[in-house]
Amino acid sequence: MKTKSFIKTTIVALTAYAVAFAFAVPYLHMLTTATKPDDELFMMPSLYLPTDWQWNNFVETFDNAPIATYLKNSVIIALAATFIVLLVALPAAYYVARFRFKGRVIFLLLVLVTQMLSPVALVVGIYREVVSLGLVNTYLSLILVNAAFNLAFAIWIMAGFFSSIPSEIEDAAFIDGCTRFMALRKITIPLALPGIATALIFTFIAAWNEFVIALTLSSTVDTRPLTVGINTFIGQYQVQWNYLFAAAVISIIPVVILFGSIQKWLVSGLTAGSIK
Amino acid sequence: MSNLKIRPDGKFRKPPLGPLPWIAPALILIFTWVGWPAFEMVRTSFREVSRSGLILGYVGFQNYVELLARPELPSIFIRTAFWVLSIVFFTAVISLPLASLLNQKFPGLTVVRWFIILPWAASVFSTALTFRWMLNAFYGFFNTVLIDLKILQEPIDWLGYPNVAMAWMVAVAVFVSLPFTSFVLLAGLQTIPNEIREAAQVDGSSSWRTYWKIVFPLLRPALLVALVINLINVFNNFPVIWVMTQGGPGNSTDVTTTFMYKLAFRLQEMGQSAALATFNFIIIFMFILLFLRVSGWRQQNEN
User: Fold this and answer.
1) Model ipTM?
2) Where residue B83 sits, what CATH number does that domain have?
3) The pLDDT value given to residue A53
């Protein structure tokens, strides 16, 4: 019986490692392409691994294209969108978690619809609005669109955490003379911190990875984030895939690490609270 | 935190000013950046817009008539249906065993989960870009592997033939959909108590039979929710096709979203693009209604 379960675990584990490797292949390929020297890039048949690993490509890509500017733009847009989501989603999530009020279900439905619409569904309308407001090629338009489309997830996940905190704890704080804001700051928010962090990290990643809106609304280097910046490599006469993927690897590493830290909570927020 | 049902307890004393100070910022953000664009889009679909973006007046349904008269449109609709349904189907078929695999105990489980998350965490854009390079006719990884394995004699220009390109793009879209769907299913599996499975096995049920007779029916709500969300995501998916073929050669791999984008920003047909977008919008709305049904969302949030 024991050997049987040992064999079973071994088979399961080996299958899982093979699947994990298959999932990693495109990203490993990205890494090996990024580290190839120019002359090994266009070899037929192609090399699986570079014979001469050029780790320097990760530095040289910055000279080859305005990667530093793109990175700065991505950081500014993603951080600002995250900050707005925090300011806007937190009070809304707290209120819907704690109180019934007229129009509550309609508000939640509105939030749900926002979550299900992606920016690409509205890109024509967003573009026309941004043009009429004179906000083409500005951080502000990208920040606000990213904040608006990630608001829903943040409200779901934070509200889920707030409603899991018994209101009696806050009641006790009121009896001790706390105002609502003090109770929120000292008790509720610290207890809901994993939910708040998840919402913020998710918003940051989504804004960091956003492509369509940035492609449409930023036509100059000054406001273009990294995704669209990498895309402009392709318009060149001969695509320098090694520098391109060096930039892509740089853009992926921080978000993969952040993503791993919140994966535990993601499902509940993304299914609009319908799956525990 | 296991309970995500947002259910207020009601007896709690309310702040004096009512809900508005708390939810107004969210409402403003939603109305200005989701509501207004939606309104603007529908309105544009009934107007004539010049190439430079000037509004030339209302034209009724003319944009819709011109859009429907486009010869490429029927095949784009059929392709979109094929695209969405095949991705959702294959994602479900692969996610079910994948979720069961992730629900087993074995050394290195956490590391395996990290790898499976990769296509979810990395931008769809960069994943699609990698596949485009791997499928390159001359320098691509896939041709090298297949020739080394003696499966191919000659390299193939995978993205040069519409049907082959479409099949690869479906594969890439399935690949990026797998982590989310299998994690939702995994969450569903983890709510099924082990005792139920053990009881079935004590009664002599084979593991295959236990899965289909007991686990799968219990997993169905999670599966349905995952499928509908995936459906909406795939319908909204733009980067895979845009990065890999831009809908080409010609319009041979366009779906409604990429064609809508081309109409607006390549062909400068804002009105027709808005008409197609409005049509897409209606379809997404129907998907949302489907989501509300399969998820039991109202019952959870109304009481």
Assistant:
1) 0.89
2) 1.10.3720.10
3) 86
